[in-house]
């Protein structure tokens, strides 16, 4: 009953307050929509002096085009450092982002007719890319440069120094022993030298020197060309005829001479070792199978590569080298790609340096083409595996098939007639065609054996059509055919 009475009383008091219009209200302010960007506290309303006032910051809703595309939603969430459908955040039509996160060029504040819009809008393609974490940091001020130290001009007055040393040498031992007694004068620790000014350099300049043994005043006549004397305040700057000191210096000199002799002998030994190693390297390079071991023998270069000499071989390699540095090596049918990153300008191949450099690879290919050595033989000669030999050879053959024809274009008829030998009896001839055959190993497949068998050579061969100009230059080479095909078929 008491609680019911108290409830009725409270209800009656509340009712009376409502009737009188004196109901108390809590002082709450509406903040409106907040900016969805991370670490941004901008809102639609701000409280100034206890009153709600619209903020001057414009809020933009997320464009409908973005809300329709999940990829764009994820991109916008990434830009504002939020996660869609995670941690209570979901990007929808109620999500707003303040103008502080958009570039000024992405905000349209005027219409197409030049009128100021009441509410700015976002342009097509605008994104919230401006945030506190990606603002450029101010550059640190460079440290101030220190002033360079002033250069001291120290010039000794030769005449004054000679007079002073002679005076010190003439001092008797008894006088020096008396001077060693502690007196106010001998307790001074620095050398006082009175130096004349430029106007007084022609006058007599007294020089006072305080040492541990005695105090000597020396007068000297200085000329205009001589500068003031700056003496040190230590006694070891004066010439001291001390036999013990001389013996110590002689011992030190003897020790240095002994060290110098040992270092000289060690240097000779090291030079001998370096010379021996250099001779071994030279001998190894001479015995190794490379183009440099054949450079002085034109007959050997012609035998192994088909080039007339070492200079011609290097000229052809220097033409191919810039493009060969970006080669993508063959790794089987269908494994090639034309968009490797290292094939772009200014990039280099990743990974360790290849054991066989480009020059050795080119030499390997030319040797296999000219001499026809087996892959096992080439692998032993160049110190690589057989699979590497096969991969290098296939890569370079495809590469040369694209680059070599550019060096030998088919000459025009006018050019052929211009270089026509006078001994040639057919002036209207432009090219001489003939077929030739190249021996190959016996294929393992029976069909390939039958297609490459040549009844003329009685061997498995490749047949190729070759065109030669009247002056003897090879100007045309056809694709390879099996040795079974007839010359008429090639023509």
UniProtKB/TrEMBL annotation:
GO terms for molecular function: DNA binding; zinc ion binding. PROSITE patterns: ZF_THAP. Residues 1-21 have a biased composition (Low complexity). Residues 136-153 have a biased composition (Basic residues). Transmembrane segments: none annotated. InterPro entries: HARBI1_dom, THAP_Znf, Transposase_HTH_dom. Residues 246-287 form a coiled coil. Residues 31-131 form the THAP-type domain. Keywords: Coiled coil, DNA-binding, Metal-binding, Zinc, Zinc-finger. Residues 126-135 have a biased composition (Basic and acidic residues). Residues 166-175 have a biased composition (Polar residues). It comes from the Eukaryota. Its cofactor is a divalent metal cation. The keyword Zinc-finger applies. This is Uncharacterized protein LOC109473251.
């Amino acid at each position: 009953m008491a609680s019911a009475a108290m409830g009725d009383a409270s209800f009656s008091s509340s009712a009376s307050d409502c009737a009188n219009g004196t109901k108390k209200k809590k002082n709450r302010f509406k903040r409106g929509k907040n900016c969805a960007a991370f670490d941004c506290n901008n809102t639609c309303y701000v409280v100034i002096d206890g009153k709600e006032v619209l903020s001057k910051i414009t809020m933009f809703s997320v464009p409908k085009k973005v809300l329709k595309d999940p990829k764009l939603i994820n991109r916008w969430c990434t830009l504002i450092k939020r996660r869609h459908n995670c941690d209570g955040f979901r990007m929808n039509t109620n999500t707003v982002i303040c103008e502080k996160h958009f570039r000024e060029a992405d905000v349209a504040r005027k219409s197409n007719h030049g009128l100021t819009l009441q509410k700015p809008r976002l342009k097509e393609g605008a994104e919230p890319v401006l945030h506190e974490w990606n603002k450029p940091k101010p550059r640190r001020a460079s440290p101030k440069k220190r002033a360079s130290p002033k250069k001291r001009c120290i010039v000794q007055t030769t005449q004054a120094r000679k007079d002073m040393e002679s005076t010190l040498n003439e001092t008797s031992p008894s006088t020096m022993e008396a001077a060693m007694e502690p007196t106010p004068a001998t307790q001074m620790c620095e050398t006082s030298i009175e130096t004349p000014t430029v106007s007084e350099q022609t006058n007599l300049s007294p020089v006072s020197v305080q040492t541990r043994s005695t105090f000597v005043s020396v007068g000297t006549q200085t000329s205009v060309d001589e500068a003031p004397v700056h003496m040190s305040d230590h006694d070891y700057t004066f010439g001291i005829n001390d036999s013990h000191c001389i013996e110590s210096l002689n011992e030190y000199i003897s020790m240095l001479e002994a060290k110098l002799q040992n270092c000289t002998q060690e240097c000779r030994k090291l030079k001998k070792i370096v010379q021996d190693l250099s001779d071994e390297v030279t001998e190894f390079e001479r015995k190794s199978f490379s183009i440099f071991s054949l450079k002085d023998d034109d007959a050997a270069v012609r035998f192994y590569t088909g080039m007339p000499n070492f200079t011609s071989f290097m000229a052809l390699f220097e033409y191919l080298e810039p493009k060969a540095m970006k080669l993508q090596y063959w790794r089987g049918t269908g494994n090639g790609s034309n968009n490797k990153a290292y094939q772009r300008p200014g990039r280099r191949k990743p990974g360790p340096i290849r054991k066989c450099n480009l020059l050795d690879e080119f030499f390997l290919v030319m040797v296999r083409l000219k001499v026809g050595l087996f892959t096992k033989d080439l692998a032993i000669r160049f110190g690589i595996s057989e699979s590497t030999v096969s991969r290098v050879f296939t890569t370079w053959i495809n590469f040369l098939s694209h680059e070599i024809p550019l060096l030998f274009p088919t000459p025009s008829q006018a050019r052929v007639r211009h270089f026509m030998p006078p001994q040639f009896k057919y002036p209207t001839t432009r090219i001489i065609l003939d077929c030739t055959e190249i021996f190959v190993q016996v294929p393992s497949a029976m069909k390939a054996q039958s297609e490459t068998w040549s009844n003329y050579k009685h061997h498995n061969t490749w047949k190729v059509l070759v065109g030669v100009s009247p002056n003897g230059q090879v100007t045309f080479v056809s694709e390879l055919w099996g040795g079974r095909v007839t010359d008429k078929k090639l023509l």
